[in-house]
Design a protein that fits this description.
homodimer, alpha+beta, mRNA Triphosphatase Cet1, Chain A, eight-stranded antiparallel beta barrel, 6 helices, 33% strand, globular, nucleus (chains A, B), mRNA processing (chains A, B), polynucleotide 5'-phosphatase activity (chains A, B)
Chain lengths: 302, 302
């Protein structure tokens, strides 16, 4: 049976010559499907279900900010170091723990420049009245992250202190707890991507010496509920070794409180439909944006 | 840069209380993406590209009808006979010739009944004024296919003679030439599917004895440019062995001439946009319908 909340018929208005109609060679207005609607996007729903599950089942004893982000990079086979290969033709979600792989959040300097150019063009275009969406905002941040071990030596999480690199002001001091990752393989594109859910718990400033630092030269674009960060990272690991240069691109849901509020009402029959579906709408735009970024890892916007 | 033919802004009209807005916990109208549009569906485009390539590169010396169909069934590993398993969470297209598999165009009697019930319900619902699409039509066909070898003993293609089983009238006499298959793995569903492109070349009635026959009790639903055939097949192979009962479900593009006309104009800059995009629109509805059928292999319409 058709879904109860089907929108009105979606058919294209078509104009064609009577000769074409007589030949029967012109496509008449076509419904989206036998149900009159687009079928649900299985890919977006899977990501929404997973993010929702991960948020709802977060450790109840820890208070902090939920971070949902997508990073652009490469999935690599852990033993060979080669980019993941699977016998499929289109973007798909890898089953967790099924393949021994790692995600490399990095790109070439050329790709970084390419994204910078494209995002700047988009920012300019987005201020035109004809642009079909909201203008992008932009800021340039210079940050210094210092990492400290936690009190528990078995704990893989680290404490991160973020400073304004120019002024030295401490902006954030927190422990980042990884709640889960979902890897997306994109065989048609120059890059793969990973969705991560983290919990950022505020802590007091640690004492002692940082184990390593990351200097971040960040171009931060914001659009509606999302931040898109294009970052050049200079990572120093140990005093002896030379610093490592990385180029990262990530998109993040900007307001954790909004994310939690929409997650709490997801599918709740006691709230109006708009509130019930807000979480899925937020994730849909998040996935759309991540897809657009990945598809432009080597081309113009598409 | 945004696409030149972007539609106007897609944002939801939202109403919410001022208290919610003050808390910042209500989702404001959201664009579909930073570009203001949905990104292209990579899956549908891949199928459209493949069907188009297969049609355009068909054998130029053979005149016949192009058949594009999607069958619902199971992808099976050829050696183990088990259903294909891949470490992915969502529907994806298998790279051709990458895995040694076969497609089984069959389902259980229960699934067949389930589809029959659902399609009948949909047919009834589709006649209501509130239904968001065109009414479905329905016919019940009793057919008998007889298969004959071709003159060339190295030729895998067979000649098929189709008769009205009740009257014995010959309806069709043709050689079906397989141009290509694309297999779709659907890990979340009870069934996989396969898109096939065939060329049906009319031939004169063969002489001699058929190698085997297929009796088809077919419920044929039609909707706009598509036929959906739910068929109970009684296949007889050799005189000694008992007949085999199969249950098939397939969706087919109903008008080969229209398909070819739209394929010829695909992406042609000299024709109006509506004609240029008609092929992709036809394939989009075809894929949407196939997805809806596969997703309902064990559930209600979704």
């Amino acid at each position: 049976m058709p879904r109860s909340e089907s929108p009105p018929p979606h058919k294209r208005a078509r104009q064609s010559s009577s000769a074409e109609h007589e030949n029967g060679l012109s496509l008449p207005p076509l419904s989206l499907s036998i149900l009159g609607v687009e079928p649900l996007d299985e890919f977006i729903k899977e990501i929404a279900d997973w993010v929702h599950y991960t948020i709802v089942n977060r450790p109840p004893d820890l208070q902090g900010k939920i971070e949902v982000e997508a990073k652009v990079g490469l999935l690599r086979d852990r033993s060979s170091g080669q980019r993941l290969m699977l016998p499929v033709l289109v973007e798909t979600i890898i089953a967790p723990d099924s393949i021994d792989l790692r995600f490399e959040s990095n790109m070439s300097l050329q790709q970084h420049k390419h994204f910078n150019t494209r995002l700047n063009e988009l920012k300019t275009a987005s201020t035109q009245p004809s642009f079909p969406s909201t203008p992008l905002e932009y800021s340039h941040l210079y940050l210094l992250d210092s990492f400290y071990p936690t009190d528990n030596p078995h704990d893989k999480d680290k404490i991160r202190v973020t400073r304004n690199e120019k002024t030295g002001t401490v902006l954030e001091c927190m422990r980042k707890i990884r709640l889960g990752d979902l890897n997306i393989f994109s065989p048609k594109r120059a890059a793969d991507w990973r969705v991560s859910v983290n919990l950022e718990v505020p802590v007091s400033h640690p004492v002692g010496t940082p184990t390593h630092t990351r200097k971040k030269d960040r171009l931060s674009y914001s659009h509606e509920e999302f931040s898109i960060d294009l970052t050049q990272v200079t990572a120093s690991t140990s005093p002896g070794s030379p610093p490592k240069l990385l180029h990262e691109l990530e998109i993040e849901i900007a307001r954790p409180a909004l994310l939690l509020a929409t997650a709490a009402k997801r599918g709740d029959p006691s709230v109006p439909e708009l509130e019930r579906s807000a979480f899925d709408e937020l994730i849909r735009a998040f996935v759309n944006n991540a897809r657009i970024l990945v598809r432009n890892a080597s081309e113009g916007w598409q």
